[in-house]
Design a protein that fits this description.
Helix content is 41%, strand content 17%. The chain has 226 residues and is an alpha+beta fold. It folds into 2 domains: 115 residues, Phosphorylase Kinase, domain 1; 95 residues, no CATH class. Strand 4 and strand 5 form a beta hairpin. Helix 4 packs across helix 8. The two termini are 36 Å apart. The structure holds adenosine-5'-diphosphate and magnesium ion (MG).
């Protein structure tokens, strides 16, 4: 079995974006165009592929255009609990269905985050699901938007006395995170452990801007020709 041949075949057939180009091939074009130090695949999700490009940055290539809209709201800001966003572009021409985002490279730890998230959800749901509903439903993007700030504050006031240790710290970061997203009008809210990571200062932070509820725009101001 020739491993190189297998890899080549997988890459050639793995054509997530249509238009006869693989995410890796597109990544190399972008590396050349934008001068990235490296190109190392670090993950993939339902609609995109992420590469480390060096200098503590990540390139996300995606077909989910709502990510463009969401990431634009964050571009150039210093966020406490969201990956900082340095660049957002809609590609043009033959790659026009593709959007790229350059963001802060967070330290991921899905196993640990999964445990903490599970603990928080269990504690919350056991105590409050009859009163406030399930936590995951409560915080889901557009539903969260429709909740009043006073309600969220009330929930926090009732919840926090029941928390301690790592779960309490996690919950503090988590609630600050959803507050920050909400203040910036980012409705993307898939808080699974694969979409969260840690900043250098240890802050929990959100990294996936997909599934935003805004209508996807076809008029992208920030375009890139490659
Ligand atoms: N800024 C980032 N820092 C660290 N890892 C990232 C970053 N962006 C993406 N990743 C990794 O790539 C994976 C897929 O990226 P994500 O944005 O969640 O794609 P999708 O929208 O397809 O779910 C993530 O689960 C994560 O492991
Ligand atoms: Mg994801």
């Amino acid at each position: 079995m020739n491993i190189k041949k297998i890899i080549r075949e997988v890459l050639e057939n793995y054509n997530l974006f249509g238009g006869g180009i693989t995410p890796l091939q597109l990544g190399f074009k972008l590396k050349k165009k934008l001068g990235f130090k490296e190109l190392r695949k670090i993950g993939e999700g339902t609609s995109g592929v992420a590469f480390s490009i060096g200098d503590g940055k990540v390139l996300k290539i995606t077909t989910d255009k709502t990510e463009y809209t969401e990431a634009m709201k964050l571009k150039g800001r210093k966020n406490n609990h969201i990956a900082d966003v340095y660049g957002v572009y809609a590609l043009t021409g033959e790659y026009k269905d593709i959007v790229i985002i350059i963001s802060e490279h967070l330290k991921t730890n899905p196993v640990k985050i999964d445990k903490l998230e599970d603990s928080l959800y269990n504690i919350f749901n056991n105590l409050f699901k009859n009163k406030y509903g399930y936590l995951n439903e409560l915080i889901f993007g557009y539903q969260l938007k429709s909740k009043s700030r006073a309600l969220i504050e009330q929930i926090k006031k009732e919840l926090f006395p029941h928390l301690e240790g790592e779960v309490k710290v996690y919950a503090e970061h988590f609630f600050n995170m959803i507050e920050e997203l909400r203040n910036l009008n980012v409705t993307s809210a898939d808080f699974g452990p694969m979409n969260l990571g840690y900043k250098k200062n240890g802050n929990l932070a959100y990294l996936d801007f997909g599934f935003g509820i805004e209508d996807e725009s076809e008029n992208f101001a920030n375009t890139l020709i490659i």
